[in-house]
From TrEMBL:
Pfam families found in the cross-reference section: Ribosomal_L29 (PF00831)
Keyword annotations from UniProtKB, A to Z: Ribonucleoprotein, Ribosomal protein
CDD domains assigned: Ribosomal_L29_HIP
Membrane-crossing segments per the record: none
GO cellular component, one term: ribosome
PROSITE patterns from the UniProt entry: RIBOSOMAL_L29
Family: Belongs to the universal ribosomal protein uL29 family.
UniProt xrefs under InterPro entries: Ribosomal_protein_uL29, Ribosomal_uL29, Ribosomal_uL29_CS, Ribosomal_uL29_sf
Organism field: Microbispora corallina
Protein name: Large ribosomal subunit protein uL29
Length: 78
């Protein structure tokens, strides 16, 4: 999963891409929690970062659902 996803980057993505990124982030969070429980986790800061990425994705999805922010299509030149 890409590190440092911003809300602006997520807002231009399609819904399917957001769902895929959410799935990947949840899998990564599961693996990090498992490593933490077994004492193998090296980067505790990554746990926090992944939780924030998940929250950011959920926020963008909810904004779309409420109609606060719409998907911006790139203008076609031609």
């Amino acid at each position: 999963m890409a590190k440092g996803l911003t809300a602006a980057e997520l807002r231009v993505e399609d819904q399917d891409v957001l769902v895929q990124k959410l799935k990947e982030a949840k899998e990564e969070l599961f693996n990090l929690r498992f490593q933490s429980a077994t004492g193998q986790l090296e980067s505790h800061g990554r746990l926090r970062a992944v939780r924030r990425e998940i929250a950011r994705i959920y926020t963008v999805m909810r904004e779309r659902e409420l109609g606060i922010v719409t998907v911006e299509k790139e203008p076609s030149d031609g």
